[in-house]
Amino acid sequence: MTRARGLRTLMAGGALVLAGGLVAQALWSAGQQSLEPRMRTGAVSFAAQVGHDASTRVVSTAGEAVTLTLPGTQVTQVLDQLGPDPDPVFWRFRLTGAAMGITGLVADVSVTAQVGPDGDEHDLSAGVAQEGTVLAGSVVKVYPAAAGGDCSVLPATPEGEEHRNVLVYSGTQHPVQEAGANPAGDLVTSEWCVAIDWDDDPDGRYANEVQVAGTAVDGSVNHDLDAWESAVAFPRTLDPIGDYVNDAWVRALAADGTTARDDDSWRAVLYPDPSAEPDVVLTIDPAITNLNPQVATGDRPVLAP
């Protein structure tokens, strides 16, 4: 999305304020609890963090995009789940901001890259993960949480998007705070969910059926039929990289002079080590909205032509 980067015009309390370079820079605040009183003619602040961990908070000081990192160790947790159709692995992050006067806040949320331990990057803008990674065998859905921070209801995969490993829902100009709705300048929080689900092979079922016939003491014949089945779930692993094969031949001379011979072989399937799973980078880009329809949305909006 292209955003206007020029001068900004604000309307506050019925007065027209022309925002030159100094004023435009001052519109963005790094306040952690609320906006500074001296900024109340049109101040904005924005930050993102992982869950409720304030130590991960990243503040946008001048409207620039901020990034959060979904650790690769979090992605690999899908391999530890057992049984047929287990719940996804959930990870959460928060968008926090405030906009005073007639301004509001929106944010673009996107998943931009995988970054490996050696710093190599794989572009995720098309939603397709790097081959050989756990993410390539998974589906990650990024979406706003429901009321109370509930992540349990996953959005459906859009038709034609089944090939993508990463899907973002409502990620374009997601409203953090409506324009003109925060006269006190209190911080507003938007909860987001990241659901990581392994793209399982189809499970099978082991079926059993038993039919019994018996003759009673009075000569009558009784019949019964029962059936039961068990779900068979394939283990979650990366694609194997090969087989480790061992062959052994043994020959021995017995005490009676005879020779005994035997041979055996065994093998093991080798799988990649998932501990090197790349981290996943999320990019959140805030923008200011305005009640004045003539002011375009952007980091430092200008009057629309």
Summarize the structure.
The protein is built from 2 helices and 18 strands. The chain has 305 residues and is mainly β.
Helix percentage range: under 10%
Order of helices and strands: EEHEEEEHEEEEEEEEEEEE
Number of strands: 18
User: Count of helices?
Assistant: 2
CA-based shape? elongated
Indicate the mean pLDDT.
79
Biggest sheet details: 7 strands, mixed
Describe this structure in words.
It contains 2 helices and 18 strands. By secondary structure, it is mainly beta. The protein has a domain at 47-201 and 275-289. The two termini are 18 Å apart.
Key terms for this structure?
single chain; mainly beta; 305 residues; 7-stranded mixed β-sheet; 5-stranded antiparallel β-sheet
List the helices and strands and how they pair.
Blueprint: E1 8-12, E2 15-19, H1 21-26, E3 28-29, E4 44-50, E5 58-59, E6 66-70, H2 72-75, E7 89-99, E8 103-115, E9 121-123, E10 138-144, E11 166-168, E12 174-177, E13 188-198, E14 204-215, E15 221-232, E16 242-253, E17 259-270, E18 279-290
Parallel strand pairs: 3-4, 10-11
Antiparallel strand pairs: 1-2, 4-5, 4-7, 6-18, 7-13, 8-9, 8-12, 8-18, 10-13, 14-15, 16-17
